[in-house]
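[Meeting: bench + compute handoff]

Bench side (C.D.) handed over the final construct sequence. Compute side (W.E.) agreed to return the predicted structure before the next meeting so the bench team could plan truncations. Sequence as handed over:
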Amino acid sequence: MTQPDAYARPLLDPAVLERLRDDLKDDEGVWKVFVENFIAQMPQRLQKVRLSLTTGDVAGSMDAVLSLKTSSQMVGAERLATYAAELEQALRRQAGSADPAVALPLIAAAHLRRIKQCAQRTVYVLQNHLIQGH
């Protein structure tokens, strides 16, 4: 998916959050804790992606980006999940084709800024969503 396509994706798909709430049997406490945990873990997830990429850790990078993508999908963070999927594809393309100590920092330079900015906006939207009680 190209960057304009990813940018066209919504920051948050409320339908995903509604399904999550339904799956948890409308237990408001559990639903909120799940979303709050996603928000609280975002800095660590971003740090793990950054650190593994900049140190050339292929396995760690893939693990970190898959964690970010999957958790984003689970809360409906569509744009962030798309950016993470683009990073995943970049990692898969480089696998075995270049020196990871060189290739991964270049991939980091190409992807991390927009992922971090999108994550910050997504967290803000999710926090507001929790406050409003949707």
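W.E. noted at the follow-up: The first helix runs from residue 3 to 8. C.D. will use this when planning the next construct.
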